[in-house]
Amino acid sequence: MPFARLAAATTPTCHLGLGLAAVARPGYINLGRDADLGETRTVEALRTRTHELLDAAHAQGVRYFDVARSYGLSEEFLADWLRSRPDIGDIVVGSKWGYTYTADWTTDAEKHEVKDHSLQTYERQRAESAELLGDRLDLYQIHSVTPDSPALTDKELHARLAEAAAQGVTIGFSTSGPAQAEAIRTALAVTVDGEPLFRAVQSTYNALETSAAPALAEAHDAGLTVIVKEGMANGRLAGPHAPAALRSVAEQTGLGCDAVALAVVLRQPWAGVVLSGAATTTQLASNLHAAVVDLDDEQLTGLADLVEDPRTYWEKRGQLPWH
Q1: Enclosing H/E stretch for 229
Q2: What are the backbone dihedrals phi and psi of residue 247, each rounded to the nearest 5 degrees, phi first?
Q3: Is 108 helix (H, G, I), strand (E, B) or coil?
């Protein structure tokens, strides 16, 4: 498992990762992104921004970097950075397949990405990822699996994924939607030649959406690495958008709402890597303070009252505009 490299890291931030969903394409759903990125969102402007974030993250101890075929040019930007930093060999790189980016570098596309979990899409996108990342790709995940995803029942696809695993690539999956727990448990049961196929899972978990926690604990107990995405709830737990209870705890700690929100996730015993989706180096530095936040029982009880019904949470997420 490539994540064994994190066990050797000694920095407090080694279990915080950096996801490039928000900076490798001009449009995304995070609140406040207009102010974060401004109006200049050319390919080269976002490439420069991404490289600055990657430099800052690695310098501050981050060792996991997360991209996807549908995150605009995230794989290309990361590959460029890796080529320019040949001395960096202590990181873990994860990507995802299953969505195709269709926005053509605009913010007002009718559809920004199209989902397809077929074997044909896997073969095409696996080749595309390999061309860019080569042997630096450690983890390849099915993007946003739901209980009805054909990727959970396609035996031919499973066989091809097992072939990639035999060649050294860790195979995982990510989840989304109100039925994450069901998707996780279904995926845990997938085997090839009697052996579990998946060795990593990436799911949404935050102070507002906690429904996947029991299933993620089961995945951890089964030996999977658990990666947590959207710990900031796409900006709903940051700065001016944060609920009063979170702002109160942040004031008590002397740190930002973002650091407290991510600290809530980090303290889960099953959380192997917690992603920052920072769009600026200032945001990244604030996010990374999560590693030193110490929350007491009273503060945790107050934050627990923020939890929403999963369907309500995902309905709200689905209404967030692409900025």
Answers
A1: strand 225-229
A2: -60, -40
A3: coil
For residue 137 the two structure tokens come to 């790709």
What mean pLDDT is predicted for residues 185-202? 98
pLDDT tens profile 149-169: 999 999 999 999 999 999 999
User: Among residues of the chain, what percentage have pLDDT more than 90?
Assistant: 93
pLDDT at 160: 98
Nearest to 287 by CA among 267, 258, 314, 312: 258
Pairing mode, strands 99-101 and 113-115: antiparallel
Query: What would the pLDDT profile of 58-98 be if each residue is shown by its tens digit?
Result: 999 999 999 999 999 999 999 999 999 999 999 999 999 99
Burial letters 89-119, b for 16+ CB under 10 A, else e: eebbbbbbbbbbbebeeebeeeebbeebbeb
Other Cβ atoms closer than 10 A to 125: 23
Exposure letters 21-33 (e unless 16+ CB within 10 A, then b): bbbbbbbbbbbbb
SS3 190: coil
Do 253 and 303 meet the contact criterion of CB atoms below 8 Å apart? no
Give 128-152 as a DSSP string.
Answer: HHHHHHGGG--EEEEEEE-TT-GGG
Q: 165: which 2 tokens?
A: 């695993």
What is the spatial distance between Cα 126 and Cα 305, in angstroms, rounded to a whole number? 42
Residue length of the chain: 323
Residues 260 and 207: their CA atoms lie apart, in Å, by 10
SS percent in the chain: helix, strand, coil, step 5: 45, 15, 40
pLDDT in tens, 27-52: 999 999 889 999 999 999 999 999 99
